[in-house]
What we know:
Blueprint: E1 11-14, H1 16-20, H2 30-43, E2 47-52, H3 65-71, H4 74-77, E3 80-84, H5 87-96, E4 100-106, H6 109-115, H7 120-136, E5 140-146, E6 150-151, E7 155-156, H8 159-166, E8 176-180, H9 188-201, E9 206-210, H10 218-228, E10 232-235, H11 255-262, H12 269-285, E11 311-316, H13 327-340, E12 345-349, H14 357-365, E13 368-371, H15 372-375, E14 385-388, E15 393-397, H16 398-406, H17 414-431, E16 436-441
Parallel strand pairs: 1-2, 1-10, 2-3, 3-4, 4-5, 5-8, 8-9, 9-10, 11-12, 11-16, 15-16
Antiparallel strand pairs: 6-7, 13-14, 14-15
Helix pairs in contact: 2-3, 2-12, 5-7, 8-9, 9-10, 13-17, 16-17
Amino acid sequence: MDTRSTGHDVILRDVTLRDGLQLTGKLLPTQRKVEIVRALLAAGVPELEIGSLARADLVPPMANTLELVSALTEEELDRCWIWVATPRHVEKALAAGARRFQYCFSVSDSHNRANIGRDTEDSLAAMPAAVELAHAAGGNIQLCLATSFTCPFDGPVDPDRVLEIACDPRADGSADIVVADTLGQAVPGQVSALVSRIRAESPDRRIVYHGHDTWGLGVANSLAAIEAGANVVDGALGGLGGCPFAPGASGNTASEDLLFATRPSWLSPQVFADIVRLGEDVVAELDEPNPVPRPAGRTIGGRRVRMGRPRVRILIAPDSFKGTYTAAEVADAIAAGAESAGHEAVRMPVADGGEGTLDVLTDPLGLERIDVDAVNPWRVPCPGFFGLSPDGTAIVELATVSGITTAHNGVRDAATADTYGTGMIMAAAAKHGARQIVVAAGGSATTDGGLG
């Protein structure tokens, strides 16, 4: 697609230093963040998102955001956005020198409570104070709507609700509207339809599309947003990223892939090569998985640096379930959870073992017990475990999935429970380096109570 046909310049905003780092668990030194900011700005990337005021104990990679802001010049900060969720966040960032703010909350109440600790209405009610603070200091503020398409807890989000918030008078004064596909579950038709409606209802504000690449549609969705009227698209180096409070969220659309697709006028072959190398370096520094080896003398950029989620095998003993839900229903729910996290799910019927799967397999396979909470990238509790074999296979028992889902009070039905629980397990096992994940739902599994 020739992006010039849309009639406006398309801006890439690189969000590596905020959304890209959130799930890595590693705090980059302030000076290294400064170097990344300056390298991207020098390359010509028009805008960056460089950090957030989220609590450092909940999102450790953001702990030095204010130090980073203080280390940058006024000219550099004029191209850099800071994630904020309250007027108090705006005050703190202003004091450090920031002048561009992304005021973010979720369309979904459930995700807003998990992410920010309050209902959506409370966040919206506080926005006028944040706008006033930013404008008084000569700054700009964006309205960022997370979970604009799908909520990890409640499912599909009503587009009418997104429009209602975007056009609420309390959001007046925001220069931009950020439409975020937090889970990467949207498809191009949905993105085009929603962006078109927002463009029609709010023609004077820029529209920013923030996508994730869960199903490999990050670039396609971004191009659909551009065609529908978006002015800015977000990406992260190497496809890094994901929301720590959204089970199933995967990495952002890769900045390298977006640049390759949109070909902005400032992008020369040398500049593109430099950005690809920077992405490779950052991914390596963060010890993030890179399952695609780099060929000698060549670079591998964009999403290819990050592709390769473990395959999920679902072992089902068809006659062993003693409860409301059948083996097929449980398998469907587990598969949905795995697939929502971007994994290939394969159902494999097995005979009823009659005993707990991990109890049977731990000794013969030499499994190492891994507590999910020890490698859990999200704030919600995961009181379960999985077994890890020497060859990198993670084995998960259905009872573990049920225990995790029971810990989340918002889960009410079996399908939602196992979708949620399996997504948590998938992420924890993949984060721990599993090459394959087996969910064993055999033995004398009971599908009452614990699944609801």
